[in-house]
Design brief:
The protein is mainly α. 83% of the residues lie in helices and 0% in strands. The protein starts with a helix and ends with a helix.
Length: 161
């Protein structure tokens, strides 16, 4: 493949494209990192409140699952920063962008799972009504539409072939 064929409609080299994509990715990660870190920080404090000891065993298990999901989401969303720091200057930016993008995608899936579990836990404690799973399912569907369906539709609809 020639240099001209590798270009993507912009007048940029592979390295320039990697630099641009890295900058965009880091901006996106900042938004997700902030949210997951705040959520994870709040989750960590729950176990130290008097109310925690009064939770039903199933809610304590759900809490532990939620904290573990939050920890894994945090790890995946901070991963691109560590990746960049460890490979910086090694002339592997295009590969680093691909790996960082994958870590970010996994982090977003884990964030979705964390938010789902946290919402389920909070609503189970706040109300013992049978509609809680339905309410959580509705919110999760909203996340899926906003985070995946609309972007995938836009990618399919507006990507030139």
């Amino acid at each position: 493949m020639t240099e001209e064929e590798r270009r993507t409609g912009r007048d940029e080299t592979e390295d320039e494209r990697a630099d641009r994509m890295w900058g965009e990715l880091i901006q996106e990660v900042r938004v997700a990192q902030t949210g997951v870190q705040i959520l994870f920080g709040f989750l960590l404090t729950v176990v130290f409140t008097p109310k925690y000891a009064q939770l039903e065993h199933s809610n304590q298990v759900l809490y532990i699952v939620t904290v573990v999901l939050g920890a894994t989401a945090t790890g995946a969303l901070i991963g691109p920063v560590s990746l960049h720091r460890l490979v910086s200057g090694r002339k592997v930016k295009p590969q680093a962008v691909r790996w960082a993008s994958r870590l970010t995608f996994v982090g977003l899936l884990l964030l979705l799972a964390t938010m789902t579990a946290a919402l389920l836990l909070i609503l189970r404690v706040a109300t013992h009504d049978g509609y809680v799973p339905w309410l959580v399912a509705g919110v999760v569907m909203w996340y899926v539409v906003c985070w995946y369906v609309v972007p995938l539709w836009a990618r399919h609809r507006h990507t030139s072939r």
